[in-house]
Prior knowledge:
The complex is a heterodimer.
Chain A (H helix, E strand, L loop, with lengths): L1 H19 L4 H22 L25 H31 L36 H4 L2
Chain B lengths: L6 H15 L5 H27 L2 E4 L10 E4 L1 H24 L2 H5 L2 H17 L3 H20 L4 H32 L4 H7 L6 H19 L7 H5 L5 H25 L5 H24 L4 H22 L2 H32 L10 H4 L1 H15 L5 H15 L3 H26 L16 H23 L1 H16 L2 H8 L4
Antiparallel strand pairs in B: 1-2
Helix pairs in contact in B: 1-2, 1-5, 2-3, 3-5, 3-11, 3-14, 3-19, 5-6, 5-11, 6-7, 6-11, 7-9, 9-11, 11-13, 11-14, 12-13, 12-18, 13-14, 13-17, 13-18, 14-16, 14-17, 14-19, 14-20, 16-18, 16-19, 17-18, 17-19
Amino acid sequence: MELLLAITIGIVVATSVYLMLDRNALRFLFGLVLLSNAVNLIIFAGGRLTVGAPPLIPDGAYAPVGVVANALPQALVLTAIVIGFGLLAFTLALVYRTFMTLGTVNSDEMRIAEPRDKRELDTGRLGMGKADPEHPATGQEAGI
Amino acid sequence: MSWLLVYPIVIPLMTAVLSYLFRNTPAGRWIAVAGTAALLLASLLLMADVLEHGVVVAQMSNWEAPFGITLAADLLGAVMVVITAITGMATVVYSLSDIPVRLERMGYYALLQILLMGVCGAFLTGDLFNLYVWFEVMLIASFGLLVLGGNREQLDGGIKYVMLNLVSTIMFLTGIGLLYGITGTLNMADLHLAVREVQNQGLLTTIAVMFMVAFGVKAALFPLFFWLPASYHTPPVAVSAIFAGLLTKVGVYSLIRCFTLIFDQDVGFTHTLLLWLAVITMVTGVLGAAAMNDFRRILSFHIISQIGYMVLGLAIFTPLGLMGAVFYLVHHIIVKANLFFVAGVAKRIGGSTDLSRLGGLYAHAPLLAFLFLIPAFSLAGFPPLSGFWAKYVVVKAALDLEMWIVAGISLVVGLLTIFSMTKIWGAAFWPAHPDGIKPRLSDLPMGDRLALMLPIICLAALTCIIGLFPEPFVQFAERSATQLLDPTEYITTVLGVQP
């Protein structure tokens, strides 16, 4: 059972990595969703698998009797699913809004915050250029 | 059970709810100011308690550790909460003038308080899965703050920030799952004992590296920092400032916590890896800054460079090294947030953050120029400011272990930091404004001037105080480092038994 789960996790992770290598932000996001599900399975498997023994406490007892399934990983996975779902909803909305505003979700074309423009690499006006307050030195003038 | 540990989490939550309810009226922002002041008070009380009684612990719902969720504050946790509250207070006051009413109505102050809650929670928790939850709280609030308003740059930077940070949290969660799988516990104090029982130490080192990657993304370590310079210059200045001050430091704090308390059995591998990552981070950060020509983008790259020093302190892993890391953390949060505040005022009166579109600040706003020099020199490590002592301790720790190359590189990086600061000075402060604008502080309305300058003056004063009277701060950092390297007190208090 663990082996089957391990192979499944492997396949899901491989698929998600493939999707995340895409330049399309939406496909990246799908990859991320798959990956978070794979991680949930890892946590689940990390708590060891016990088949057919729900962690229930019989009447009159204070603790479960005999071998029961580990309930903690299920609580952890539940928390992770809830958080993951919230983040997914936010990120989907963000990608949609970005598409509406920028007209693209291709990460290569998203260069507004960090323009490829040459001016950005201009290291001019180091305070060492010409001391002309009317026309302060630009990068070209400083020879950089 | 100490209520003092709960206040830094509950107060921001209550404030967030109230200021969201009143977001359409001026009451909303004043509730935020009052709430943050209350947080500051609560954090100082916590600090006093920790100084007096040592590690303070609270078991949530009275479930004994390691079964329930534990909140614990040692000296490092307490000082981080205090500094969070100080930065939060400065940001809220600065926001009174910096944040337009439009963003306020979208719930800006509520998001800011949620962010503070997440950061405080991360500093106070004693449970690894709980740390993940606080990371997520902090992240979702920071996503909101980053794209609030939704202009083109923000969305562009936001996408990269969101995506890379989500990958890091997933990595963190994987590490948690695997660590639980081999140890059966998630309580940090209990993990300290449990990892020693593990048969397969190689697997443990693999998991340690997984945590290193996850926290490395948060802390903006090389080569995982690309989200930071892509996004930190896009939101409103107040948001940039609190991000720059606090968020990466949560990553560094988590690194320090995990790599002193949990993963300290294979120091030869993990901490050597951290050492070289730290050195490369320092160098790439400062070189990146040298290539930039925008006030806030230069500062963003300097965050990365300075993160290198803190992680270096951790990687050296001697009492002196950790002491340097703690001192550096505190000093850097104050200084970096302050530099972003100054950049914001420069933008407000000079019209831009692009260095080629700025000028004349020295001639027309000498007070601002003076207040820029304090954190700028402190960042570069000039005596007698706080940065000098921080750098001195870290470099001394490296020299003590005869790491000549590492110490040499960190000194050269300090020099290059001065170069960047000179560049900002030489473009924004010294020459006249290219558009002939006379950027005067007195042109701002009185209320705005007060809200913008008060946080800058207070933070600059703090930098000077730490620099001029370093003795108590150094002693504090030393005690904190001792506590980190020998976590017996932490473990005994959390678990209630002798390890």
